[in-house]
């Protein structure tokens, strides 16, 4: 029997669907899963009649693969990946390629890259986005690792990835952990996008829009400049009615959000690098606050706020203003994410290409959106673009939207409706365009209590001064 072109370990939902996708592109695939019954069930069901062979024994699995072997690990991120690598090492040869396609922390990927390089094993850490459906029909793939390793898997990854205008949503991102880093930022941006949509929904709900009206608004937005997968599914969510109560299902769902950790990793990495991702940060914190359900229920009768929603706006006017606030905030979120990628690229020497990243995110993944074409164009037109906000297209939108954006944030604040991501985005915009921030006073305070010194606006940069501040008498 001919050897397989590709092997995959880890037959949970993502692994199974990726296998079916690879096979559907004309490749022969071997599979292995720690729990053998899972492999058997897959062979008897989804893989039945397809060019897929399953193995209960890891050695037999490895031997079934054509060399250089291409083995993708699709198991739970963390220790399980290391465990599988250790099991593979005695069985594979130098020059074989291991790909970790799970949501691994990029520092783990960097470590594994170095470890495997020492042993002569090729390694790619690939972020895969698009959930189960993407895995089956065409995900966005963000591979990182040495170029020679990438070349080995490029034909298969290019074949299975999503396509936009005939272009594969899969490009080599950079060395080491670059691919998993880009995937982590993708997930952070996904958090931001989702939270911004939720804030729009919350305002509409307070203003008395029905679920049906919201379905129509998001559907309309999905046919305009906000066109995206997340806006599309949001529109559909509002159309689903709970059979038991006859209410829209969204109103029966518990308001306690979960998270698996990639948003938190993004925030931690930003803090370490001195990047500002306030929109994503607000989104991560909003999920945490949502999880404090019992505390919120207990506090609600004790802490006062405005009672009836008042705006003085027609529904049509409010719709337009919220649209502008959402679009402007979304631009800020992407501007922050792209700047963080640039900072990481410099820090780790990855040479990330912003245009390529925007291009890969256009299809297959959760944040796929029409406006990623504009981001791609912005960075292709000016690879040194300092901040996405300064690109002509985005600058035009921000300038045209800022008045409505402010009105929406003010309206939310006046009515006691939390809009942490809208307002964090606006504060970033206003801080970035401010020539003089109040950090002069901050420097004075630091010099006061810690003699940290300060620079002066009327003296050369890099010259430091200290004032003998008056003693504080307690
Ligand atoms: P899970 O993350 O739920 O992992 C389950 C798989 O890991 C099973 O095949 C399981 O084998 C295997 N496994 C575990 Br758990 N511990 C193992 C160990 N010590 N040795 C060998 N195998 C082990 O699966 P998933 O949801 O398909 O996701 C796979 C990867 O893709 C994860 O890193 C995930 O974060 C990432 N991802 C998921 C999605 C998504 O939408 N679900 C999207 C994008 C990326 P068993 O059957 O023997 O328990």
CATH class of the largest domain: Mainly Alpha
What is the overall pLDDT average? 97
CATH superfamily of the largest domain: N-(1-d-carboxylethyl)-l-norvaline Dehydrogenase, domain 2
**H-E order:** EHEHEHEHEHEHEHEEHHHHHHHHHHHH
Calculate Rg over CA atoms: 25 Å
The small-molecule ligands in this entry are: nicotinamide 8-bromo-adenine dinucleotide phosphate
| Low-confidence segments | none
Please, how many domains? 3
Structural descriptors:
Single alpha-helices involved in coiled-coils or other helix-helix interfaces, seven-stranded mixed β-sheet, 474 residues, binds nicotinamide 8-bromo-adenine dinucleotide phosphate, Rossmann fold, 19 helices, N-(1-d-carboxylethyl)-l-norvaline Dehydrogenase, domain 2, alpha/beta
Question: Layout of SSEs?
Answer:
Blueprint: E1 6-9, H1 13-24, E2 29-32, H2 36-44, E3 52-55, H3 58-63, E4 70-73, H4 79-88, E5 97-100, H5 106-118, E6 122-129, H6 131-137, E7 140-144, H7 147-160, E8 163-164, E9 167-168, H8 178-206, H9 211-221, H10 229-237, H11 262-273, H12 278-291, H13 293-299, H14 315-348, H15 354-360, H16 372-381, H17 392-414, H18 420-432, H19 439-450
Parallel strand pairs: 1-2, 1-4, 2-3, 4-5, 5-6
Antiparallel strand pairs: 6-7, 8-9
Helix pairs in contact: 1-6, 8-11, 8-12, 8-14, 9-10, 11-12, 12-18, 14-17, 14-18, 15-16
Bound molecules: nicotinamide 8-bromo-adenine dinucleotide phosphate.
